[in-house]
Amino acid sequence: MLKIGDIKMKNQVVLAPMAGVCNPAFRLIAKEFGAGLVCAEMVSDKAIVNKNEKSLKMLYVDEREKPLSLQIFGGDKETMAEAARVVDQQTNADIIDINMGCPVPKITKCDAGAKWLLNPDKIYEMVSVAVKAVEKPVTVKMRMGWDDENILAVENAQAIEAAGGKAVAVHGRTRLQMYEGTANWDILKEVKEAVNIPVIGNGDVKTPQDAKNMLDTTGVDGVMIGRAALGNPWMLYRTIHYLETGELAPDPSPREKIDVCMIHMDRLINLKGEDVAVREMRKHAAWYLKGLRGNNKVRDQINQLHTRDEVASSLYNFVDGLESAQKEKASAV
Ligand SMILES: Cc1cc2nc3c(=O)[nH]c(=O)nc-3n(C[C@H](O)[C@H](O)[C@H](O)COP(=O)(O)O)c2cc1C
């Protein structure tokens, strides 16, 4: 069982925080597909403190998404504590997560994200400040290290625990690796053995079997899934089902995929308005369409469309075409 502070998750499967993806529209879908915990996309501590309207909107949590973890990032103590306080007192989130993994230069150059991985003392200091400022559990998501010469995952996790952090999620890659190479799961086991707080393993869980493998070989308390869930919330459901029963649930049909893609789009429209949502949905639709035969034409089409109804008819025309081709093939046999 995965338990963070007093919060008990109903299973060990966690949706990873993903900027530009994990807003309430997709998080709710992930929840409906069974995720034990969903993580929100990162929000800047300074933007929260400065009451940036767009960032404050990103703190909205629907009751149905709970338990949910809201992630903040930043480089200095005062703003980190203040932003944590806002998440603690003014939002519906259950957990406050601190980002120590983001590799992109825009974030690391202001001494935030993965930059801290070089310095367990700084981690201790930042986590302590946040923990003291709030009542909700504080957790950290980090990469295993900065580069191959600086893999301080164990020391950093111990610093998080000593500072009062209630869990740590570890992505088995260095900052230098970005998303290259394969994630190192051995380090997850080392971290798990070195601390008493729950450890959530992350990196390259692409199938339900991978999830079981990670849990079995490393002993981590939870498994965090990112890219494999893009346009594929079935990955969450199928993983939970596999962990519970040892059986693989079937893949969704093309029509089911498009039905969920449309639910996603309608929720995004409610959240951001049709214009923005339709543009944002282009990348999501491409993910939902992944693996479906001949999807490049419909993807190109959607990239030119501006209204919900146009996108819907394009997607459903594509599925109708796929289904009639399948029927023809079946009757020819
Ligand atoms: C589009 C995208 C956005 C991401 N945004 C965040 C973020 O906001 N905060 C964070 O801690 N990690 C972020 N990550 C990293 C993921 O949470 C995760 O650690 C990484 O994708 C590895 O897991 P995976 O192999 O299951 O995808 C992001 C990853 C992707 C692909």
Give a description of the structure.
A hairpin with a 2-residue loop joins strand 1 and strand 2. The longest helix is centred in the C-terminal third of the chain and has 25 residues. The strands form 2 sheets. The protein has an 8-stranded parallel β-barrel with strand order 3-4-6-7-8-9-10-11, surrounded by 7 helices. The mean pLDDT is 95. The protein is α/β, with parallel strands linked by helices and 333 residues long. It is built from 14 helices and 11 strands. The protein starts with a strand and ends with a helix. Flavin mononucleotide (FMN) binds next to loops.
Please supply descriptive tags for the structure shown above.
alpha/beta; eight-stranded parallel beta barrel; two-stranded antiparallel ribbon; 14% strand; binds flavin mononucleotide; 333 residues; 48% helix
Give a summary of the structure in a few sentences.
With 333 residues, the protein is an alpha/beta fold. The protein contains 14 helices and eleven strands.
Layout of strands and helices, then pairs:
Layout: E1 3-4, E2 7-8, E3 13-15, H1 24-32, E4 37-39, E5 43-44, H2 45-49, H3 53-57, E6 68-73, H4 77-90, E7 95-100, H5 105-108, H6 120-133, E8 138-145, H7 153-162, E9 167-174, H8 186-194, E10 199-202, H9 208-218, E11 222-225, H10 234-245, H11 254-272, H12 274-289, H13 296-302, H14 308-332
Parallel strand pairs: 3-4, 3-11, 4-6, 5-6, 6-7, 7-8, 8-9, 9-10, 10-11
Antiparallel strand pairs: 1-2
